[in-house]
Write a structure and sequence with these properties.
alpha/beta; three-stranded parallel beta sheet
Length: about 170
């Protein structure tokens, strides 16, 4: 159990802890590969017995290196769906730009934790946000109500469709 959540299925299949411990690429040694860390989380999501519509990945790293490219994140989305990735950069030497890019693309969040005393609170806040989802698959419709106004561009990372006349 982590934060009161059971990290294995009810039938006793592999827990996240045993999955990490048994994973051949998961080892301490001073080298960081952010992409492999997130890949491990995505692999775990693909293998879960039950799919919860409210799902997120939380990544804590103190290092740099191995950032996933856009194609890798697109592949993850195709394999497990649009799962938010919440990144936590710990200490002064982490790659903040990479973590912010990952979380932006995956519609997650990025938190900088300078010392060990703030990590627990940051995780708890993020987990509280994940567990308090009130709506999913929301579609927002914007209309230009005055005759002379048209919509040319919407600044967002979410998919956008503008009507041919630019009114919606």
């Amino acid at each position: 159990d982590v934060f009161g959540l059971r990290l294995c299925s009810e039938d006793g299949k592999k827990t996240m802890t045993s999955y990490i411990n048994d994973h051949p690429k998961m080892q301490a040694g001073g080298l960081t590969n952010i992409r492999l860390g997130v890949e491990l989380g995505m692999t775990f999501l693909k293998q879960r017995a039950f799919q919860n519509p409210v799902t997120a990945v939380m990544l804590l790293t103190d290092g740099q290196g191995g950032a996933p490219d856009a194609a890798t994140q697109t592949r993850w989305e195709a394999e497990v769906g649009a799962v938010p990735i919440h990144c936590f950069g710990f200490g002064a030497n982490h790659d903040a730009r990479t973590l912010a890019n990952i979380s932006d693309r995956a519609h997650g969040s990025f938190t900088f934790d300078e010392n060990i005393n703030t990590v627990g609170g940051a995780f708890a806040t993020c987990l509280g946000g994940v567990l308090s989802v009130t709506a999913q698959q929301v579609v927002m419709k914007i209309q230009a109500e005055v005759p002379w106004a048209t919509i040319h561009q919407v600044h967002t990372t979410y998919p956008v469709s503008i009507s041919s006349n630019g009114k919606e």
